[in-house]
Amino acid sequence: MHGLRLNQVTLGAIDFAASVLFYQRLGLTLIVDSSPRYARFEFPTLLNGTEPATLSLHGVDTEWIAPAEWPLMYFEVDDVTVFLADTNIVPISPPEMKSYLWEEADILDPSGNRIRIYKAGSVRRFPPWRIE
Which one, of 45, 19, 53, 52, lies nearest residue 33 by Cα? Predict the structure, then answer.
């Protein structure tokens, strides 16, 4: 095993300034600012001491067609409803408990990238139907 980890995602940003503000509103910390071409954010530091993931924005031409359904990014929070209220972000539809035991609500960033705000807790890795 090579220790493969997902720690960085880069998204296209049509309205760069609005996108930067949006991700700051979600609670990410801006750590590189080369506006309007590039920005990098850091997620909050994890309690277990592992390095936080990063998210980057790359400015794109207004002719760029934003994604509708895919890719879909998942951002986990402790309480979906409280997080949405605290950030004053209105989801596409209200938070819902899914059959796979995750509470979810989808939002769109200013460029149309879909983000699923969710809470899964230990069920993400250890669902009742996990293969041993």
Answer: 19
For residue 36, the number of C-alpha atoms closer than 13 Å in the C-beta half-sphere is 11
pLDDT tens-digit map of 8-63: 888 889 899 999 999 999 999 999 999 999 999 999 887 777 788 889 999 988 77
The Cα–Cα gap between 20 and 33 comes to 9
Identify the bridge partners of residue 41 per DSSP, sorted by sequence position.
Answer: 30, 55
pTM reported for the whole predicted model: 0.78
**Residue 21 domain-assigned?**
yes
Question: 89: domain range?
Answer: 8-124
- The answer to whether the CB of 30 falls within 8 A of the CB of 41 is yes
pLDDT at position 121: 86
Nearest to 81 by CA among 91, 73, 69, 70: 91
| Domain annotation covers residue 84 | yes
Percent of the chain's residues with pLDDT above 70? 90
Collapse the DSSP code of 68 into the 3-class scheme (helix H, G, I; strand E, B; otherwise coil) and give the result. coil
Q: Which of 5, 115, 80, 10 is nearest to 50 (CA)?
A: 5
CATH number at residue 84: 3.10.180.10
